[in-house]
């Protein structure tokens, strides 16, 4: 956390070599703060942590591309990052994987766009042959082809990875386990992302009140049925509204994706921010829909018992 604000406390977990751990949680709960602390960019308020011996650590955050030397050429930067033990052929292959052509390798970094600088940093990070990678939103500013290439490269590596990403497909393709940050706590889940979501739904289940032991009178049952039907009517309307909103958001997101696909050489910060905003809102609406659906099922179950 920070001197004026503790994000989470009583944190304890162990990560095995080769695990790919996604740090998940709602916005503002402390995912990036936790990753920064592990990376040494923030000093922990209390306690300690340690890596294994002789561990090489690579760290990627949103500010990293801004720290590149604008006078360096793209190819020279990759060779420098790779070090002497990496063959030139491996450098060229990595450059190609991140969509840098032979001509691009001769360009000075100063002429690169924000997305190209992010790609360059990630390519260099993978060429370093680190034992641990700490990645904060690595897919931001990347086009879809690069995100796919990055996901494939990371999913196949035996490097230990801790990462934060709002791209659920990216998380699902890479994560072998989960760290959940929220409510001032940090929880460890050994499930992959798909199974984590399943168990999250179980935790979010809203238990409806059970019938009292004594039998209700016919009048009490009738009044309760009327009450439930009214509530059910409203909740089903809320469910429908949430479904409509999800469809609208998905349509907006798809239209933006089409633009990116049709303009692979263009970068629009405004459109990228729109995608991020829609993604955040969509996650919230999906969570709301899940809670309403659980509530509706509980009400329908109680209504059936009152017949």
UniProtKB/TrEMBL annotation:
Keywords: ATP-binding, Coiled coil, Nucleotide-binding. CDD domains: ABCF_EF-3. Transmembrane segments: none annotated. Residues 2-208 form the ABC transporter domain. Gene3D superfamilies: P-loop containing nucleotide triphosphate hydrolases. GO terms for molecular function: ATP binding; ATP hydrolysis activity. The keyword Glycoprotein does not apply. Residues 219-252 form a coiled coil. InterPro entries: AAA+_ATPase (IPR003593), ABC_transporter-like_ATP-bd (IPR003439), ABC_transporter-like_CS (IPR017871), ABCF_ATPase (IPR051309), P-loop_NTPase (IPR027417). This is Putative ABC transporter ATP-binding protein ybiT. It comes from uncultured bacterium.
């Amino acid at each position: 956390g920070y001197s004026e604000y503790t994000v989470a406390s009583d944190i304890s977990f162990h990560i095995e070599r080769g695990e790919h751990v996604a740090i998940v949680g709602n916005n503002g709960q402390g995912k990036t703060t936790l990753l920064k602390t592990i990376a040494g960019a923030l000093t922990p308020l209390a306690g300690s942590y340690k890596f294994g011996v002789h561990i090489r650590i690579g760290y990627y955050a949103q500010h990293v591309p801004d720290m590149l030397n604008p006078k360096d050429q793209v190819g020279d930067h990759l060779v420098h990052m790779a070090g002497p033990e990496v063959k030139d052929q491996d450098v060229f292959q990595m450059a190609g994987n991140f969509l840098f052509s032979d001509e691009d390798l001769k360009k000075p970094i100063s002429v690169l766009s924000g997305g190209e600088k992010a790609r360059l940093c990630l390519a260099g990070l993978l060429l370093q042959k680190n034992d641990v990678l700490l990645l904060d939103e690595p897919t931001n500013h990347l086009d879809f082809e690069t995100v796919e290439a990055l996901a494939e490269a990371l999913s196949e590596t035996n490097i230990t990875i801790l990462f934060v990403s709002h791209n659920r497909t990216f998380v699902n393709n890479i994560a072998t386990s989960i760290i959940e940050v929220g409510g001032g706590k940090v929880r460890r889940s050994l499930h992959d992302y798909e199974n984590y979501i399943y168990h999250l739904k179980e935790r979010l289940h809203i238990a409806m009140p059970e019938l009292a032991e004594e039998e209700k009178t016919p009048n009490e049952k009738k009044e309760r049925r009327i009450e439930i039907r009214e509530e059910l009517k409203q909740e089903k309307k809320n469910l429908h509204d949430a479904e409509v909103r999800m469809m609208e958001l998905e349509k907006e997101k798809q239209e933006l994706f089409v633009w990116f696909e049709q303009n692979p050489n263009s970068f629009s910060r405004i459109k990228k921010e729109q995608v991020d905003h829609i993604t955040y809102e969509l996650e919230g609406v999906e969570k709301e829909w899940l809670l309403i659906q659980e509530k509706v099922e509980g009400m329908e179950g109680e209504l059936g018992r009152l017949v």
